[in-house]
């Protein structure tokens, strides 16, 4: 469960945020603080992953609180939930590493979307030590990826996907054109086009293996298993 601290001086707004949080799977409320100083005390003694933070509060403002925990090196994520819509507040919050910024008033769907995106990000980061560029773009940075790339004439997207699936299953073991053609169910001539294409993309490495007599056999090996290199052509 993701441990959450709500920092909000308005009891009614804090209760709304608490109810919204309870409707979103994967989160557990640790405490509600009505000031920045109280929030700092809670973080010092409790396990907190995420703070839902207001900016306008008596005493220490939300931005002052955020700056203080960053200077202290505390690894706590923050979603700002505030009526402050001025450029300066937004810019400073983002510079301090806020993962999202919600302007009051807002609907449950907006907070739910923010919490859901954060939850999926945490799950992905906890599950994977190494991320592909595609996962980073789509699931963490939420960037729109470039339009689907064009394949060279004579190559088919669906066939390329089948070829890639078989190559990924080799686990880096060497294979010949004939091996892969049989596995996918296309001719050797057609398969050679796909293997040459993937070699140019830096996915495969090819080398000639010479026997006692006759022509060499070309062996391929997957040297870059990042699916994003191929998926952009699907």
UniProtKB/TrEMBL annotation:
SUPFAM superfamilies in the record: CheY-like
Entry keywords, A to Z: Activator, Cytoplasm, DNA-binding, Phosphoprotein, Transcription, Transcription regulation, Two-component regulatory system
Response regulatory domain ranges (all copies): 3-119
Entry keyword Phosphoprotein: yes
Top-level taxon of the source organism: Bacteria
Residues with PTM 4-aspartylphosphate: 54
Record InterPro entries: 2C-system_Tx_regulators, CheY-like_superfamily, Sig_transdc_resp-reg_cit/mal, Sig_transdc_resp-reg_receiver
Compartments it resides in: Cytoplasm
SMART domains the record matches: REC
Protein's name according to its UniProt entry: Transcriptional regulatory protein
Source organism of the structure: Anaeroselena agilis
């Amino acid at each position: 469960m993701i441990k959450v601290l709500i920092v909000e001086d308005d009891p009614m707004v804090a209760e709304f945020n608490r109810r919204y949080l309870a409707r979103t799977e994967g989160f557990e409320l640790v405490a509600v603080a009505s000031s920045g100083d109280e929030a700092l005390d809670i973080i010092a003694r409790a396990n907190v992953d995420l703070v839902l933070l207001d900016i306008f509060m008596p005493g220490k403002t939300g931005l002052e609180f955020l700056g203080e925990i960053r200077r202290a090196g505390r690894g706590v994520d923050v979603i700002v939930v505030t009526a402050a819509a001025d450029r300066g507040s937004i810019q400073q919050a983002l510079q301090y590493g806020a993962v999202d910024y919600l302007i009051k008033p807002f609907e449950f769907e907006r907070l739910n979307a923010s919490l859901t995106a954060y939850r999926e990000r945490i799950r992905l980061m906890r599950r994977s030590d190494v991320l592909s560029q595609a996962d980073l773009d789509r699931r963490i940075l939420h960037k729109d990826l470039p339009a689907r790339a064009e394949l060279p004439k004579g190559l088919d997207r669906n066939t390329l996907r089948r070829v890639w699936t078989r190559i990924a299953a080799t686990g880096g073991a060497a294979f010949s054109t004939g091996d892969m053609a049989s596995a996918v169910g296309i001719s050797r001539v057609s398969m050679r086009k796909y293997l040459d294409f993937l070699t140019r993309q830096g996915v495969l490495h090819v080398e000639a293996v010479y026997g006692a007599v006759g022509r060499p056999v070309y062996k391929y090996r997957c040297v870059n298993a990042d699916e994003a290199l191929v998926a952009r052509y699907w």
